[in-house]
Each structure stands twice: as C-alpha cells, then as structure tokens.
Design brief:
Elements: E1 13-17, E2 19-20, E3 26-28, H1 49-67, H2 71-88, H3 91-107, H4 111-128, H5 131-147, H6 151-166, H7 173-192, H8 196-213, H9 216-232, H10 236-252, H11 256-272, H12 276-288, H13 297-311, H14 315-332, H15 339-352, H16 355-372, H17 375-489, H18 497-522, H19 525-529, H20 532-543, E4 549-555, H21 563-584, E5 588-596, E6 599-606, H22 616-619, H23 621-632, E7 635-641, E8 647-654, H24 661-676
Parallel strand pairs: 1-3, 4-5
Antiparallel strand pairs: 1-2, 5-6, 6-8, 7-8
Length: 677
C-alpha cells in the first residue's frame, strides 16, 4: 500500500463508498449505497395494518441503532422485521427489510451476505415493478461486486441503476437524491481506476443535485470525492478547503463517520504537503474518536500514520503501526483496498532489509493490481459509460424535441385563447354599450314619467287650490260683502247713519284682508320678491288663529336661490302646514329652516294626533306632491309619525344646484362698488 520514499507523489486517501474502505490511494470517497426507504403500508384486508406497520417501525429502529454505532441491536431489529414480513408474506415489508439489511451487512464488511439480500431486494422490486427500489437494488449489488474487486460487474449494475433512475419521469426529491448517490458511486469507481477526470466530473454532477435539493449532508458526501480527485491531481489547497467543509458538515450534524473520514483525508493531504507533525496530530484525532463498531476506520488511520513515519525516515515506527493496520485489513477491508497495503508493506520491509518478505509482498501487490485493472475490465467499463452517456444524449434530444412540440402546442393553445379572448371582449363591449343605451333610454323614460307625475301633481294641486280658493271666496269674502250690502240697503235701521257707514267700512276692510290672504296664497311670487325668508315668516303669521299657534324659526342666512326653487320650497312648506291644519287636530306647530354651507334643512312638526305612516305615499295626494317637489329640488324627504305622538316632516335640499347666479353676481358687484366709494 505504501510506496518507497522516492514515490512521494503517491497519495493515500480514503473515499466514501457505503462503508469506510481503502482505495488504491487510501482516500475516503463517499459513495453511499441507496437505503431502501420504508413504503407506506397498503396491506390486503387479511393482513392487520398494525402488523404491517410494525415491520417498518422495526426497520427504522434498526437504522437508528446502526447510525448510533450499535450494530448488535441494529441486527436484532432488522431480523425481527424480516421474520414478521415473512410470516405476513408482505412483499413491501420484505423489500424494505432486504434493502436496508443489505446496506447494514455491507457496512459490517459481510459482503457475501450483503449480496444475497441485495439480490432478494432486486427480485421483489422487479415483481412489484417498483423502479425506484429496483435501481437501489442494482446499486447495492454493484457495491458488493466492487468490494470483491469485480469492477466489470460493478460497473454493469451501477449503470443499470443510473439508467432506471434517469428514466423516471417527473422525479421526486427522493428520486433525485437516489440519482445523486449513484453518480457519487460512479465517481468512486473511476477513482478506483485512477481516471481522475471522470471521477471529478461525476462527483461534481452529484454535488449539483445535492445543491438543487438543498441537502447539506449530501453536498458533503459529494465533496469528499471532489477532494480525493483534487488531491490525486495535485490540487492540494483546493482539496484541503473541501476537506474542511466536509469536516464542518460532519461536526454540525453530529455524524461521527463523516468526521472520521474528514480527519483522515485532511491528515493524508497534510502528509502530501510534508507537514508531518500536523498530519500525525490529525490522524491521532481521528483515532481517538474511532469506535470499534465502525469497521475499517481504524485501518485507514493506522496505515496513514505508518505512511507518515515511513516518509519521515523511521521504518521501524512505520512497521509498528502497519502490522496493526494489516491485521485489521484482512477482515475489515474489501479486496481492492488491499492493493496499496501490499505495496506499502513491501516498501517498509525493503527499508528494514527484509528483502525476501518485501519481494513476497511486491508479488501479491502486482497480482492483485493486475486482476483489478486488466485492460478488458477498463474497456468494458468505458463502453458501459459511453452507452450510458449516449442514452443520456438521446434522452436530452427526445426531451428537447418534446419541449419543442409542447411549445408549439402551447403557442397554438395561446392563439386559440387569444381569439376567444378577443371575441369575448367584443361581446362584452357590445353588451356594455347595449346596457348603457338601455340605461340611457330607461333614464329618459323615468325622467318623462317623473315630469308627467310632477305635472299631474301640479295640476292636482292647482285644482285643489282652486277649490279651496272658491270655498274661501264663497264662505269668507262673499259672506262679508253680503253683510256689507245689507248694511247699505238698510241704513235707516241705525239711529246714527255715520255709525252704519263705519260698520260697512269695517266689513269692507275685513273683505280686503281676506282677498289679500287669498291672493298671497295664490301668487306668493309677489311676496318672494320682497325676500324668501320674509315670505315664509308672513305665511306662518297668517296661519295663526285662536286655538292654533305656528312658530317660524330661520337659523342662519338662507342662500340666494332661483325663483322656481324658492317657489317649490314655499309650496312644500305650505303643503305640510295645510295637512297639519286639516288632519292633525294640533294646537301648535313649528316651521324651522337651517342652512349650513350649501345644505338647507327644513323641519315642519306638530303636536297633533299623528297617524300610521305605512302606505302614505300611495294614499295621500298631498304627500305625493311633496315627493314630486323634492325630486325637482334634488332633495330628500323623511316623514315620521306615530298615533298620538304628532308628526315630523324633514326635508333636506342641496342648494348648490339651485343658486341664482345672476343675483349673486349683482350682489358681488354692489359690494365692490360700495367698497370703492
């Protein structure tokens, strides 16, 4: 395993290949075999779900014991899981047991038993047509062949695993994680053959998948192979950088196996840099944390220390450590890992002068090396790799063609949807235009109906006003004038003719006042010319009579409104007061106007008998007139009344749309003239 002092470029690194193992250069390379994952239980009705679940529970428990360095406990639970799966005749349980137990046996350097269970896992996965587990089984079989030095068979099965894994459509994270392991194993295989370029190529491919999965531990396991390839190529600074990254990951995740491998590999690179003291210290750190339950690790550390002493010129100290390492290697290392052990032993015996023993070890080294690296094996492996690369290239072309077809179909689909979208948009626009036209026509009809109702209300109001005026003229003015005539016709009945003429004059004054009141009610425009507020006050004063008091309050300054708006507001108040007098049986009432900014609020209240406000709009003509006037004024109307509790009429009007612009301009000009004078 160790060369003589003149072969100082020879490296002694350990790769990671499922378990700790020596390569021809003694570097740890990570090539973890795929663990068969526990599948969800889908047992037949005859099999209890709790029983089938127990199989997977024991497998997971065994894996946990294995990870904690408790091989005896791990094997106990593995066997219990296998026995239960066999009793239940449960293939998925058998598959989980066989795949995971094969890995356990491989790490325990029991390669023949590991091969047996790996083949069982392959048979079951083929029967179940489980391609993921099938690829894992091929990978496990490849590891057993490689451990026995059958590199051609190892390459054949490893390529089968990669072909199956690469053929999985829409791979899951687990599928990608499996593929990463297979590529890492392929990297290890090429490093065994000293093909550094391809070993580094597949290690980086494995690392890229780990990055894609954001799996830090897997990134570390791929980095260790990158480190080996770099060290074998003489890129020592880069190798140390990646080795320290791997060590940090192992310590961060509490993975003792990773930490040991990292320390051994870093120590070997320090040796290559001739930093012997640092190399020995690092090897001793690895040896101090190596448990007996992890076979193979101590071999690497002892052989590494032996190599350091050999290069330091101390063959006796080197042999002391080598003998211990060689004894362990006979039982703990696979066949390919003994190649450099024979060469290192030969160099030590030669340096100590035992040439016969040195010659014997050289012969064993040459024979084993030739059996492992014959031209036919290397040619076969190269052919398998070319076939795999060709298949991958064809797959890439097929995927590209499929992508082109999918893109064309996508474009066609988008064009179709574009046409549908445009057509739908045209329909939507046409519908919106049609709705807009219908709404406009509807508003016109509503406006016409509103105008018609307003005219009808005005006509009804006028007719009602005429009837009321005729009654007032007949009952009031006509009766007064008749009394005056009677006084004129019978003046002799008075002792004093002057007194008779005075009575006639009083009757005529009363008749004049009645005519004035009637004329004000009929034509309030004349009063409005004197002022809107004065007109309201005057109206309220005329209403007062014995037994009824109507108070008027105007808060703030009323706005300058168009005469039509003033007249409509006046009529609305008049309508409310008239209804109050006719129907409320009230003794008092209030008319209140309040203006704040452009909002005019009008309140008409009484203490009358009230009424039920339900249905008032369809029964009362007076209230219909009020509603029509409020629409004309763009105002709101709220009537609240309850039997025995009086009535409140609240009106609110936006004065900004009814302002008298001309009057406002005239007032501003008058104010300006006054200020100038």
């Amino acid at each position: 395993m160790y060369a003589s002092i003149k072969h100082v470029n020879r490296i002694h690194l350990r790769r990671n290949m499922g378990i700790c193992r020596l390569t021809s250069l003694h570097m740890h390379v990570h090539c973890v075999c795929l663990l068969a994952l526990a599948l969800p239980s889908t047992a037949s009705p005859a099999i209890g779900r709790s029983d089938t679940s127990k199989v997977f529970e024991w497998v997971e428990l065994a894996k946990d014991k294995q990870k904690k360095g408790m091989p005896d406990s791990a094997e106990y639970y593995f066997k219990r899981a296998g026995e239960l799966a066999t009793i239940l005749d449960y293939d998925k349980g058998k598959l989980s047991f066989a795949g995971n137990y094969s890995v356990f046996l491989y790490e325990q350097v029991r390669f023949d038993e590991a091969m047996e269970y790996a083949q069982q896992a392959l048979e079951i996965s083929q029967r179940l047509q489980n391609r993921t587990k099938m690829a894992a089984a091929y990978n496990n079989i490849a590891l057993q062949h490689q451990a026995r030095g059958r590199l051609k068979n190892a390459a054949h099965h490893l390529m089968k695993a990669l072909e199956i894994s690469s053929g999985i459509q829409n791979p899951t994270s687990q599928n990608l994680s499996d593929r990463r392991k297979y590529l890492n194993n392929l990297s290890s295989l090429f490093l065994d053959l000293h093909d550094l370029e391809k070993g580094l190529q597949y290690a980086w491919q494995s690392f890229e998948i780990a990055q894609q999965l954001r799996d830090t531990v897997s990134m570390g396991n791929s980095l260790i192979n990158v480190m080996v390839a770099e060290a074998m190529s003489g890129k020592l600074a880069s190798a140390i950088r990646h080795g320290k990254q791997y060590l940090a990951i192992g310590r961060a995740y509490g993975d003792l196996q990773m930490e040991i491998k990292a320390l051994n590999n870093l120590a070997d690179v320090y040796r290559m840099q001739k930093l012997y003291a640092r190399a020995l210290t690092t090897f001793q750190q690895a040896l101090s944390i190596t448990p007996a339950s992890m076979p193979g690790n101590e071999v690497y550390t002892l052989s590494g220390i032996s190599r350091v002493y050999m290069e330091m010129g101390n063959p006796r100290k080197a042999k002391e450590h080598f003998v211990r390492a060689f004894q362990l290697a006979q039982t703990e290392l696979a066949k390919p890992q003994l190649v450099d052990m024979y060469e290192t032993g030969a160099d030590i015996e030669e340096a100590l002068g035992d040439y016969r023993q040195a010659l014997d070890l050289h012969k064993k080294h040459a024979a084993l090396k030739d059996s492992l690296r014959d031209q036919e094996t290397e040619k076969t492996i190269q052919e398998l790799e070319v076939r795999y690369e060709t298949a991958q290239h064809r797959k890439s072309i097929a995927e590209r063609d499929l992508k082109i077809v999918e893109q064309a179909a996508e474009l066609s689909r988008k064009d179709k949807w574009l046409v549908i979208y445009i057509f739908s948009l045209l329909i939507l626009i046409s519908g919106l235009v049609g709705i807009r036209l219908l709404n406009r026509q509807k508003r016109r009809v509503q406006a016409a109906e509103l105008e018609k109702k307003l005219v009808e209300a005005q006509l009804a109001g006028e007719e009602k006003e005429r009837a009321r005026t005729a009654k007032e003229l007949h009952d009031g003015v006509a009766s007064i004038l008749s009394a005056a005539r009677m006084q004129i016709d019978t003046p002799l009945s008075y002792d004093n003719p002057r007194a008779a003429f005075q009575d006639v004059g009083q009757l005529l004054d009363i008749a004049v006042r009645e005519v004035r009141n009637i004329s004000h009610n009929l034509a309030p425009e004349m009063i409005l010319q004197e002022g809107f507020a004065d007109a309201i006050h005057s109206f309220c004063r005329r209403i007062n009579k014995p037994g009824f008091q109507l108070d008027c309050y105007i808060l703030g300054e009323l706005p300058n409104l168009q005469q039509s708006a003033q007249l409509a507001i006046y009529r609305a108040i008049q309508e409310c007061v008239t209804n109050m007098l006719k129907h409320a049986d009230a003794t008092c009432g209030i008319v209140q106007l309040a203006c704040e900014k452009d909002r005019l609020s009008i309140t008409v209240e009484d203490n009358g008998k009230g009424f039920d406000a339900e249905g008032i709009w369809v029964k009362g003509i007076g209230f219909a007139n009020l509603q029509s006037r409020m629409r004309f004024l763009n105002g709101t109307l709220d009537i609240r009344s309850f039997p025995g509790r009086g009535t409140s009429v609240f009106m609110e009007i936006d004065c900004s749309v009814h302002k008298d612009r001309q009057q406002g301009i005239a007032i501003e000009q008058e104010l300006a003239t006054t200020s100038l004078s």
